[in-house]
Structure formats: C-alpha cells, structure tokens
Write a structure and sequence with these properties.
By secondary structure, the chain is of the alpha/beta class. It folds into 3 domains: about 1-60 and about 180-245, Rossmann fold, CATH 3.40.50; about 65-170 and about 255-300, Rossmann fold (3-Layer(aba) Sandwich), CATH 3.40.50; about 315-360, no CATH class. The chain is built from 16 helices and 11 strands. It has helices at about 1-20, 35-45, 45-50, 65, 70-80, 100-105, 120-125, 145-155, 170-180, 195-200, 205-210, 220-240, 255-265, 295-300, 315-320, 350-360, and strands spanning about 30, 55-60, 85-90, 110-115, 130-135, 160-165, 190, 215, 245, 265-275, 280-285. It has a 5-stranded parallel sheet. A 4-stranded parallel sheet has the order 4-3-5-6, sandwiched between helices. A two-stranded antiparallel ribbon has the order 10-11. The two termini are about 25 Å apart.
Length: about 375
C-alpha cells in the first residue's frame, strides 16, 4: 500500500508541475490552518515533493497553541486549589505557563488527569462526588459539540460537581484577521478537514467573496493534500476562485446540522484573545446563561489576566504565518520537545513540533521533483 500511495503522489506531483508550467503568478502561497494538516505535510515529506513555485505556510490551526498565556496560567492556578480535579486532553498538560505546567503541578500533588473525551471527565465526577472535576474546554468547532453534549448530560443527571473551563474558539473570525494583515500575502487556503465536517464547506464562501482567496477542503492522507494543492493552483492559474470540496467523502456543503444545533444550544459567541493574533471579536465561545453553573470561571470567580510571552519566543508570529520555526532564536536550542518554551513545540499539532520532528531530517523516502 505504501508504494501504491507513493506512485499516486508522484503522479499528482507530475500533474501539479504541468499546471505550473504556464502559470505567471509565482510563487503560489498556500496556508494550511489545520494542525493535523501541518503534521501530515511534514510526516510525509510533502514540502519536498512540491515544485519550488508552491509555498506552504502554516497558520493558527492548533487550538492548544492559540490559547493565550494568561489562560494557561489560570489552568495551572486552578489545578492547585484543594478538592479540584483537572481533566484535559494530553497536549495541554505540558504547555508551560509562568509558573510551570500542569505536569509540574501534578508532580507537586495536584490532581490532573488526561482524558480522551469530555465524557471521561463526567465519569470521574460521578466517581469523585467530593471533588469539583473540571474539564479544560479547549478546541475548535470539531470538539465543541461533544463538550456541549457532555454539559447537557451533566445537567440532565443533576451532576453538580462537574464543570468546564470554557476556552473554545471558532475559525472564521481569525481568518478574516489574517487576511487583513498586509504582511501575509496568500493565494490559497487549505481548509481544515475536521472542522469542515462539522461546519460544512460553505463556511469558507466569505473568503472567496470578500478576499478573492482560492479555497480547497482537504483530507489528511498525502494524496488528499496533493489533490487540494492541485485544485488551488488551478484556481489561481484560471483566476476563478471558489471553495472546492476535495474531501467530499466526509464533508458536505452544510456540515453536520445536528452537531451545529447541539453546540449552539450550550454555547454562544464572545470576544476572545488568541495567542499571536490578539483580541478578536466573536471568535470564542462561552456557556449560555442557563448553563452558567457548569462554568468554573463563574462558579469560582476566576479572572484571566494578561500574561507576556516567554522572552525570545516567536510562537505568536509563527501562528500568524509571518515567520518559520527556524527563525526563532530558541528553536532547537532552549526550546525542544523535552523542554518546551512555547506551546508550538508541545502540541502534536504544533508547527514547531512538526519542524523539529520532521523538518530537519533527511527522509530518503520522500520524492523531490527538482
């Protein structure tokens, strides 16, 4: 199967080179805004496969990475309170704050549990009635419906010792902010497959209408990504930009309506701060008034304060796509996966983690057409 996929990838690269042969708009700059795309691109050596006229730029597609430093500090402070148990996805536990990480807090005696679903946090709350079990609600549109379903389940069974720390975000507002930045010149967007399953491909129509950006929804296999890159190059070459769904086997035009309704029942849009992008209007999600009892920030009157980025760390600029990890003076020296300074080196979807793991290695299995 590996050789079949490699053959298909080579054929797609041949198609791409033919499309680029007569193109006058070079280079073609494409941003992927999904951390899973970033990791897949590096893991499979796709950057090495592409002709030099195609430039891939990584954007703010990692929810852990865009969570601001002040929120990370609040997570850690919360974990140190008595009779509080923190539940979180694994990527968050090693993100450093000003006073260590959740992993450090756990080593010092805090109860911090890694879970695979918010429902696991609900189960822990039922098993530990004398503790306040808090799920750190970090994610984009992909995970929001499952978190909403968990809160509804907690309400239906009257589980008073379960709460969430709401830090969810949605993708359209930051995309507008990025495209209004004159420092970032993009021709196309590799749209996130996971998010698009929930939202539908139509969500990106405003990028074509308002910004003339070529868009293609992509899956995560090498051939999926190459197919989407070919579609984007063809759009740029023809001048006929659109939203092309290259992941039609799972993504529909309007998305998962039931999941959208579920999320809207529990959450409402609010202004939110993004690492690297600042405050963005209506880009975050808060629990609606009728679910306020499950919001730990309201129950415990938690205030998130602004916190500076670690000195020298360029995660914010990397998330905006205006610099690469190798441009950061800490990358590969003070900031490595075993001892990260910024979140982009921690997360399995982080750009710096992808660069460190795959970017500096020579992969004899990759194919460079040049």
């Amino acid at each position: 199967m590996k050789y079949v996929d490699e053959y298909r990838s080579r054929k797609m690269v041949d198609v791409l080179r033919k499309e680029l042969h007569e193109i006058t708009h070079t280079p073609v700059r494409i941003m992927e805004v999904c951390g899973t795309h970033t990791m897949s691109i590096f893991r499979h050596g796709i950057r090495n496969m592409l002709p030099r006229q195609v430039e891939l730029v990584s954007g703010p597609g990692c929810p852990v990475c865009v969570t601001p430093a002040g929120v990370i500090d609040a997570f850690i402070d919360l974990s140190r309170l008595p009779d509080v148990m923190i539940t979180t996805f694994g990527d968050m536990i090693r993100v450093p704050g000003r006073q260590g990480s959740l992993a450090d807090a756990r080593a010092a005696g805090a109860e911090v549990e890694i879970v695979y679903s918010p429902m696991d946090g609900l189960a822990l709350a039922r098993k530990n009635p004398n503790k306040l079990v808090v799920f750190l609600s970090v994610g984009f549109e992909t995970t929001t419906p499952t978190i909403a379903a968990t809160i509804l389940a907690a309400k239906n069974i009257g589980l008073a010792n379960f709460a969430v720390f709401p830090a969810n975000k949605i993708m359209p507002p930051p995309l507008r902010v990025l495209l209004q930045d004159p420092a970032l010149q993009l021709d196309g967007l590799l749209c996130p497959g996971h998010v698009s399953i929930m939202t539908g491909a139509a969500m990106y129509n405003f990028l074509v209408q308002d910004y003339g950006l070529a868009c293609a929804v992509a899956g995560f296999e090498p051939t999926d990504i190459l197919q989407a890159v070919i579609a984007l190059v063809k759009q740029v070459q023809s001048g006929r930009q659109c939203v092309e769904n290259c992941y039609g086997r799972v993504v529909s035009e309007q998305g998962n309506r039931r999941a959208q309704e579920l999320a809207a029942t529990v959450f409402e849009p609010v202004d939110a701060h993004w690492r690297g992008l600042g405050e963005i209007s209506l880009s975050g999600l808060a629990l609606r008034r009728e679910f306020a009892g499950f919001d730990v920030t309201r129950r415990l009157d938690i205030t998130v304060t602004d916190a500076p980025e670690p000195p020298g760390c360029r995660c914010g600029e990397i998330l905006k796509g205006i610099c690469q990890p190798a441009d950061c003076p800490l990358f590969g020296t003070r900031c490595v996966p075993a001892s990260p300074v910024g979140p982009c080196m921690v997360s399995s979807e982080g750009t710096c983690a992808a660069w460190h793991r795959y970017g500096g290695l020579t992969d004899t299995d990759t194919f460079n057409p040049e």
